[in-house]
Amino acid sequence: MATGHGLSLTAVSQLSWRNLWRNQRRTIIMLLAIAVGVWAMIFMTALMRGMVDQMIEDGIDALPGYVQLHHPDYRDDPNVENSLPPPGPELLVALGSPPVEAWARRVKVPAMASSERNNRAVMLLGVDPQPEIAVGFDPSSIVAGRFLEGPNDPGLVVGRKLLERLETDLGKRIVIMSQGPNNSIADRGFRIVGVFEGKLSAQEENLVYAAIGTTQELLGMGEQISEIAVKGGDYRDASALYAWVEQAAGGQYEVLPWTKLDTYLGLMLGVMDGFVLVWVVVIFMALSFGLVNTLMMAVFERVREFGLMQALGMKPASILYQVLLEALMLLTLGLLLGNVMAVASIMPLRDGIDLSIVAEGIEMMGASSTLYPALKPKDLVMANTVVIVLGILTSLLPAWRASRYRPVEAIAKT
Amino acid sequence: MAEIKCVELCKTYRQGDAIIKALDHVSLDIEQGAFICLSGPSGSGKTTLLNMIGGLDALDSGEISIDGQRVDLLEKGALADLRLHHIGFVFQSYNLIPVLSARENVEFVMQVQGVPAAERRRKSMAILEEVGLKDMEGRRPSQLSGGQQQRVAVARAIVSQPKLVLADEPTANLDSVSAKHLMELFVELNQNHRVTFLISTHDERVMRYAQRLVRMRDGKVVSDEIQISD
Fold first, then answer.
1. CA distance from start to end of chain B
2. What is the CATH classification number for the domain harbouring B38?
3. Which residues 62-121 in chain A show a CB within 8 A of chain B?
4. pLDDT digit string (tens) for B190-208?
5. A with B: how many residue pairs have Cβ under 8 Å apart?
6. B80 contacts in A (CB within 8 Å)?
7. Which stretches of chain A score pLDDT less than 70?
8. Domains in chain B: how many in total?
9. Given CB atoms, is A314 within the 8 Å cutoff of chain B?
10. Residues A241, A228: contact at Cβ < 8 Å?
């Protein structure tokens, strides 16, 4: 195949390849620099992606569900007055069909938990245990006692930290007090039947789980509920699930996807792709100085040759092409090495990196103490594309310089 | 027909505050198949004249035509084509491409011309045999002596049978034996293939081979003599 300047692609490739290895030490150093840069791009992106994914997944489990239905005023004032009737037949059919995979009714109201020594403001969750597990509660998070066993279980499940704050223990009774209908005070003593350990310390401190029937009885709200949590499909794109549920719900409910329910989490998902691009470009910018310097050196060393080639009839465009091909070879080799290094260093960490030593600080950000690096094909594609595209653009300057020498002056260079 | 016609060529260079007249109203007609030596001291304008005829540098004023085609009016691309297809260059300091072997250096111009690989190989091996380097075809320039490198450069210049060879001090870095071999090769090509040679030199041994000797000084032609061979 001809390059359009007489010299075949094979011939230009041969020239570029041999020139690349003229100064082996310089080429190897630059290759290592590119490889380490690419490794840093991919490895750090996988760590960040893993952390953010974990934050989002933990956050969604805490919501729970990818879509929730509420009374239109509930989110402004989450009391029993702003509750919903149980789902009607049409909504029940929709909740039993794909893309819905699981759904749960919940009562969720602010309350006060009091032990004989202390009291704390909490969020009282009245749940049906099996559906609750299906939409996100992790039964393995129960570290003492048991989880609720049915919709009318009289027990209470609290977080480990709340137990410490209330200075009480498993098996002891605490009083839950909340506001009933018509501003009445509703209270009841519950025996603590289980203690859970939350992925986030805020969950452990703020949430108490009671059975939904027991809670409805406490609050005198009959069959009314606070919310319906729905799960199905990939959380990264909950639009299909949202549209399905919203259509079935009609105008009676406020239907919101998780990205609107927790805007911080939604924002995290949105900014991650942008963050990856910025990260990759920043590393590339540091790399590009080395790349331009290497190519400039290679060009300056060969000024006479470029002049000679032009004197012999090679067109400037062909010289530009030759230097660009040299840069492409260097970038491709560096990328190959960098990708292999990145994959080789991420694969052994698939089972997670234990960050419990700095867990407090990480949990403040909403992440869990075990970090699972997430190597996404799209991040690999982005890193490789950025390096190739920006690398070639960066190489245009030295390549253009090489092609602009006047033969008579270039040949006279010593 | 005059193959090369130079009319009132002028070229000046600036060196600091000084303006140097490299060519000062030089006119020269070169017949097809001529074997001409340009002689003169350093700075007399020999190399500048070769560069102008080869389209490597631009004139301030004057006209150069090769076979009636105005070289001084050609664009960069057309000049590159002219050099590629019609002119062979031999430079003072070998100027081989270091990453290519002797044969690949010889093939380089043919590669740019788009000559098929088999034909390139046949021609390059034949010309290397002619210059006595057949057994060194795979050697890189750094593995060849100065004389051998210059012979490779000559082989490259003539392999695609240009009409004109411009040689700038081709024997300057050669020992007397190598220089003699090179000049005999030039004469043979001139006589058997009608290749026109324009050679700049201040080597008296080279001048003896010339049919015509053009002497230059301070950018001017000071004499133009036909030489009778011994």
1. 27
2. 3.40.50.300
3. none
4. 888 888 999 999 888 889 9
5. 64
6. 310, 313-315
7. 1-6, 356-369, 413-414
8. 1
9. yes
10. no
